[in-house]
C-alpha cells in the first residue's frame, strides 16, 4: 500500500528535476498543500478551506488553486464531495502526527526553541556526512531563492525557505532528522502573523538577510565544518525568533518561551 511518505520519497527526485526550470505556481501550491496534509494539519476527513480562502492564503488566483487541487485529486489525496467541497481522503488520522497548533507568539517562540535544538544538530551532521549530490541539491534551493529575490517573488520565499531546511536535513542521510524537520511548521499561509501584524516595509531587506544566512550555513556544510554550521544555523533561527520578539504586537510572550539561550 502506498503511503504519504513512500509517495513523496519516490517523487522527490522528479520534483527537483521539474524546478530547474521556472516553477508553475500550481506546483508550488501543490507542494504546500501536500505538506499540510502530510504533517496532519489537514488530517484525513478534513474539509479543505474554500478556493477563495486558499487563494487569499497562498496569494495566487483561483485557477492556480484549482490546478493544485486537481493534482491532489489525481493522486488520491483529495476528493470532491457534494455539499462538503474538497475533503482529504488520504493522509494522517486526526491528532496522530499533527504538530502542536501555533496560535500565539508564545507558541511561535516555543517552536523556535525546539527548532534551534533540532536544526543545529541537523546542520552539524549534514556538514559531516554530505555528499556531492547533497551540495548540488542545496545549491539548487539557493539558486531558486536568489531568482525569487531578483524577481521580487516574495510570496514564494516561505516555501523556498522550507526547501533549504529540508535539503540540509536530507544531507544528514538520517530519515529521522528529515521527518522531524518536515513536521516543523514553516508558517506557510500564516503571513498575517508576520506581514499584517508586523508590517512589510522591511521585507526586501529581511528576505535578503535570510538568504545570506542560508548561504553561510551552506558554506559551512560544503567546507565540512560542523561547529561553524551549528553556529550559523543557531544564529539564523535565533534571528527569526528575535524578529518576532521585537515586532510582536499580538501577545506578551511568557518568560519561558521568550528566554534567550545563553
Can you describe this structure in just a few lines?
The protein has twelve helices and two strands; from the N terminus they run ααααββαααααααα. It has 262 residues and is mainly alpha-helical. Helix 10 packs antiparallel against helix 11 (226-247).
Overall morphology: globular
Mean pLDDT metric:
77
Helix content estimate: 55-70%
Distance between the ends: 48 Å
- Unreliable segments of 5+ consecutive residues: 1-22, 187-199, 250-258
Oligomeric description of these chains: single chain
Question: For the report, how would you describe the main beta sheet?
Answer: 2 strands, antiparallel
Strand order of the largest sheet: 1-2
H-E string: HHHHEEHHHHHHHH
Radius of gyration: 18 Å
SS-based class? mainly alpha
State the helix count.
12
Which CATH architecture of the largest domain is right? Answer: Up-down Bundle
Secondary structure tally: strands: 2
Q: Domains counted in the coordinates: how many?
A: 2
> Mind telling me the CATH class of the largest domain?
Mainly Alpha
CATH fold field value of the largest domain:
Four Helix Bundle (Hemerythrin (Met), subunit A)
Could you give me the name of the CATH homologous superfamily of the largest domain? GntR ligand-binding domain-like
Strand content: under 5%
Blueprint (SSEs and pairs):
Layout: H1 4-18, H2 25-38, H3 51-58, H4 62-74, E1 78-81, E2 85-88, H5 105-129, H6 132-150, H7 157-170, H8 175-183, H9 191-198, H10 203-222, H11 226-247, H12 255-258
Antiparallel strand pairs: 1-2
Helix pairs in contact: 2-4, 3-4, 5-7, 5-10, 5-11, 6-7, 6-10, 7-8, 7-10, 10-11
Amino acid at each position: 500500500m502506498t503511503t504519504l511518505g513512500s509517495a513523496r520519497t519516490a517523487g522527490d527526485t522528479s520534483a527537483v528535476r521539474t524546478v530547474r526550470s521556472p516553477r508553475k505556481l500550481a506546483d508550488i501550491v501543490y507542494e504546500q498543500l501536500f505538506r499540510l496534509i502530510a504533517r496532519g494539519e489537514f488530517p484525513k476527513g478534513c474539509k479543505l478551506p474554500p478556493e477563495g480562502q486558499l487563494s487569499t492564503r497562498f496569494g495566487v488566483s483561483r485557477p492556480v488553486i484549482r490546478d493544485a487541487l486537481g493534482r491532489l485529486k489525481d493522486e488520491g489525496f483529495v476528493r470532491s464531495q457534494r455539499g462538503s467541497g474538497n475533503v482529504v481522503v488520504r493522509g494522517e488520522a486526526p491528532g496522530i502526527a499533527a504538530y502542536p497548533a501555533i496560535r500565539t507568539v508564545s507558541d511561535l517562540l516555543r517552536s523556535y526553541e525546539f527548532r534551534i535544538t533540532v536544526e543545529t544538530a541537523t546542520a552539524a551532521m549534514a556538514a559531516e556526512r554530505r555528499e556531492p549530490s547533497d551540495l548540488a541539491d542545496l545549491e539548487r534551493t539557493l539558486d531558486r531563492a536568489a531568482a525569487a529575490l531578483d524577481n521580487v517573488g516574495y510570496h514564494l520565499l516561505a516555501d523556498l525557505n522550507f526547501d533549504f531546511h529540508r535539503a540540509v536535513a536530507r544531507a544528514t542521510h538520517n530519515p529521522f532528522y528529515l521527518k522531524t524537520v518536515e513536521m516543523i511548521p514553516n508558517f506557510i499561509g500564516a503571513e498575517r502573523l508576520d506581514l499584517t501584524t508586523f508590517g512589510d516595509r522591511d521585507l526586501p531587506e529581511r528576505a535578503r538577510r535570510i538568504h545570506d544566512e542560508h548561504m553561510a550555513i551552506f558554506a559551512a556544510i560544503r567546507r565540512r565544518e560542523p561547529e561553524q554550521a551549528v553556529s550559523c544555523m543557531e544564529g539564523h533561527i535565533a534571528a527569526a525568533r528575535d524578529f518576532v520578539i521585537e515586532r510582536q504586537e499580538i501577545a506578551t510572550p511568557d518568560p519561558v518561551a521568550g528566554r534567550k539561550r545563553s
